[in-house]
Amino acid sequence: MSIRYVALVAHNDMKPTMMAFVAIHVEFFRGCNIVTTNSTGKSLEGKLGITVGLKVASGPLGGDQEIGALISKGKVGLLHSLPRPLPLLAAVSLAAECGFVASVQHALFNLFMCVQAAREQDKNAQ
Q: Of the listed 18, 29, 64, 82, which one is catalytic?
């Protein structure tokens, strides 16, 4: 199975919030294959030194649709978006259909991180 992307999407004035969030979890994100829009990707690389595997067009130029296309092709494993571009129920439904995790709030992402850590501990204990 190929490695899927972690999509980071920050709309308009939410970029500083996304940057602060990624800075808190910088070690996790350094180990991820990240896809983001061009401006968010440049900020992540410049300010946090994180490598962005794929930068798509900015949102107004179709970048959100490009990320949506990657989701529909099964190439995104986790979407973290601020603020959520879809109502929560629609995002969860889309996630279930396409087989990825939709993280639309920091608390949901933190829960995902805890579940992943527990799975790793179980795997290592076996």
A: 64
Q: Any idea what the Cα angle at residue 5 is, between residues 35 and 79, rounded to 5°?
A: 80
Q: Is-contact 43 34, C-beta < 8 A?
A: no
The domain 5-125: what is its CATH number?
A: 3.40.50.1380
The tens digit of pLDDT for each residue in 61-102 reads 888 889 888 888 888 888 877 754 444 445 555 555 555 555
Q: Is 122 a catalytic residue?
A: no
**Angle at the Cα of 6 from the Cα atoms of 48 and 65, rounded to 5 degrees:** 105
Q: Where are the domains of the chain?
A: 5-125
The β-bridge partners of 56 are: 37
Q: What is the pTM of this model?
A: 0.67
Buried b (16+ CB within 10 A) or exposed e, 96-113: eebebbbbbebebbeeee
